[in-house]
Amino acid sequence: MSYQTTTKDHAALAEAFIKDEERVDWHDGALWYIREKRDIASKGIPEWEELREAASQIKSNVISNLHDYLLQFEANLKKNGIVVHWADTPQEHNEIVYAILKAKEINQMVKSKSMLTEECGLNEYLEERGIGVINSDLGEYIQQIDNEPPSHIVLPCIHKRKEEIGELFHEHLGTEKGLSDPTKLTRVARKPLRNVFMPRRAALTGVNFAVAETGEYVVCTNEGNADMGAHLSEVQIASMGLEKIIPQKKHLGIFLRLLARSATGQPITIYSSHFKKPREGQEMHLILVNAGRTRQLGRPDFQNSLKCIKCGACMNTCPVYRKSGGLSYHNTISGPIGAILAPNLDMKRHADLPFASTLCGSCSNVCPVKINIHDQLYKWRQEIVKEGHASSTKVFGMKAMAWTLSSSDKLDKAGRAGRWFMQNVPFVVNNKLNPWYKQRDMPEGPKETFTEWYLRTNGD
Amino acid sequence: MKIALFIPCYVDQFYPKVGVATLELLEKHGCEVHFPPNQTCCGQPMANSGFEHLTHGCSDLFAKNFQGYDYIVCPSGSCTLHIKEHLGVPELAEKCYELTEFLVDVLQVKDLKASFPFRVGLHQSCHGQRGLKLAQMSELNAPPFSKVEQLLSQVEGLELVTLDRKDECCGFGGTFCVAEEALSVRMGQDRVQDHVKNGTQVLTASDMSCLMHLEGIIRRQKLPIRVMHLAEILNSVKVKEPQPVSLS
To answer: Does the CB of A45 have a partner CB in chain B at under 8 Å?
Structure first.
């Protein structure tokens, strides 16, 4: 199994999404509702902004001292009896998981709460080698049976109508046709999922917070599948990006308060499960994954994107995300945060993403760890153009524009009075078909410009 | 107080009335206003498109044109933000003010002596609001304030419309408006609908770029909403009906 890959850019994928006006209405509405719930929850705590500041500073400290914290974490994990693995690439990560399962002759695994393994393409890798993987969280399970990547890091199938989910269940789980009641659908999914847990000997989860001081990790969920998988498993694996470290256990008091409020407006997730040492007879493995994170760490303008705690608040608040859907970002992590993380992984492939924004700045201000997302989008645009990933038409247009506007004389010659702007604003980008005019009227050209009026009425 | 008027390039070309209103408004409140006539563009369209390295010509010209004044005032939050954050000339950056913040913070205008008896819907332009902090943003848990509303509240007869989403982006976004045409328009249509639903007669903002985009949609859809820049409303004396922003 592999996801359909796309060669279309964000603008084209967004345009396709927008064609279904009704879908945009409720997708936008559903996410705005979550943004409003987040507002209410955050405004219910007087010290909210102080919490954000504290979290941001703790994460700055982590980023500046990552090497030391990782070694401390590793030493404490070992002390607790957890086997530690280091993976530099997604490929290495997948090989490690495979080797762990193979040693135990396990050919089925249950997975919960892991965007990292989506990023690594773990399911496909294991399935090619005869190991079945079931995503146990409902949203991810729905995406898995539909052979589609998640469209949101917290709400993986938010872009799907309940009728579409009913249709999927009819096709894959044999439910009656036309079933669309969410409660009934959830009950239906529960049965095969419950059955999945029992025979699975291995469970893999992601990690929300890894405490360097104690060598434990915390997984935050609402459905409890991470716990059920872990508790029933003989082999428990956790995969985490290097940046998930927090220095001390007491810092959880800050991050847990921020995470769920930012994500869904809940005061806290239903489960905040601490995993520290294996049960008797159980094996626990933890894989520390780099996958480009140290490269991002080496970029001063972008390193603080590694503060992200994956709450999804920037997606919910982003009007571009709400109206174009997560899949239009063609990357595991979508939305504003995805748009600043993805170019680090493959700048050419993701060159369109930093431009999929109006730089409105809402993302930076909902972010619970205060990542300056919109500033980084601006800076990625500069990098992408410098690295030569802008189209030649755009480069030509921008050069012409910069030259014309660099002096008043040049602009006069180009036709200030002859409405140079009419032809060149809104901007020279691919405007063969004049995209402005497709659904918008042009401004009416006045008889004289302000400059002309001023010179006429005020003398020279 | 010697003030240089900085008129954004597209305002100069398409919306001279906004420039006139800004100039009159400042003069009405006792300012000596100069308009450096060789100004072209601040360079923002290039910079936001990833071509900041091509903006030196524009930046040098701006610095040359706007040297030697006490303040630089501009009827656009977006262009002002570019001067403050990306021009790279600190002494000009700190003198540069967006019109409403200049009226509130520097001139401390308490009585505009304006009258505009209509239902006005305010579009909070993002760069002015979140960038220049002209108003508190809904994302933060912080006390509310609004410099724009402080001014609008001084306008006789004006009724401010309450919107469902008070500070959502309109989708203009510079080159975004053409590079992501479908999305930009959809975002704009949704903003316009909020104003239609809540009974806006006149749509205003401190940035003409957002308004150019929204007006384009309003006119295409033939909706009964007039579009005017904030400066025109703040500068209005008793009038019988709202005036359209464009000269024809």
So the answer is: yes
What average pLDDT does this structure show over A390-406? 85
Any B CB within 8 A of A317 CB: yes
Contacts of A42 in chain B (CB under 8 A): 141
The whole-angstrom distance between residue A83's C-alpha and the CA centroid of its chain comes to 29
Nearest to A272 by CA among A293, A255, A284, A297: A255
A236, A279 in Cβ contact below 8 A?
A: no
**Alpha helices per DSSP H over A211-251:** 225-232
CB neighbour list of residue B98: distance below 8 Å, 6 or more residues apart: B73, B74, B75, B76, B77, B80, B128, B132, B134, B206
User: How far apart (Å, rounded) are the C-alpha atoms in residues B93 and B86?
Assistant: 9
Pairing of strands A271-275, A216-221: antiparallel
Residues B140 and B59 in one domain: no
Q: Are residues B74 and B126 in the same domain?
A: no
- Rounded to an integer, what distance in angstroms lies between the CA atom of residue A285 and that of residue A84? 6
- Looking at residue A422, what is its pLDDT? 62
**Number of folded domains in chain B?**
2
Separation CA A372–CA A353 (nearest Å): 16
Nearest to B129 by CA among B161, B95, B165: B165
Q: For A96-116, what is the mean pLDDT?
A: 95
Q: How many residues belong to chain A?
A: 460
CB atoms < 10 A from the CB of A169, how many? Answer: 22
Q: Are residues B128 and B215 both part of a single domain?
A: yes
pTM, 2 dp: 0.94
Cβ separation of B178 and A436 shorter than 8 Å?
yes
Query: Quick check: A445 and B182 CB within 8 A?
Result: no
Q: Which stretches within A137-181 are classed as H helix?
A: 138-145, 162-173
Spatial contact of B119 and B202, defined as CB atoms under 8 Å apart: yes
Q: Which domain holds residue B63?
A: 2-106
Q: Does B14 touch chain A (CB under 8 A)?
A: yes
**Residue B240, domain member (yes or no):** no
Give the residue from B127, B131, B98, B133 showing the smallest Cα distance to B234.
B98
Residue A164 neighbours by CB under 8 Å, 6+ apart: none
In contact, A328 and A6? CB cutoff 8 Å: no
Q: Is the confidence at residue A2, as pLDDT, over 50?
A: no
Interface probe, candidates A440, A447, A454, chain B, greatest B C-beta count within 10 A = A440
**Rounded-to-integer distance, Cα A367 and Cα A38, Å:** 11
Decide which of B56, B78, B106 is a domain's last residue: B106
* B112 falls within a domain: no
**Rounded Cα gap, residues A331 and A149, in angstroms:** 9
Give me the domains of chain A, ranges plus CATH numbers: 10-294 (3.40.50.10420), 394-457 (no CATH)
For A117-137, what is the mean pLDDT? 95
Which tokens hold the place of B202? Answer: 């006149």
Among residues B72, B106, B140, the one where a domain terminates is B106
Query: Which chain B residues are closer than 8 Å to A355 by Cβ?
Result: 49-50, 175-176, 179-180
SS3 track for B164-233: CCCCCCCCCCCCHHHHCHHHHHHHHHHHHHHHHHCCCCEEEECCHHHHHHHHHHHHHCCCCCEEEEHHHH
pLDDT (tens digit, 9 = 90+) per residue, A177-228? 999 999 999 998 888 888 877 778 999 999 999 999 999 999 999 988 888 8
A382 touches chain B (CB under 8 A): yes
Residue B246 lies in a domain: no
Q: Which of B10, B55, B247 is facing A421, going by the closest CB pair?
A: B10
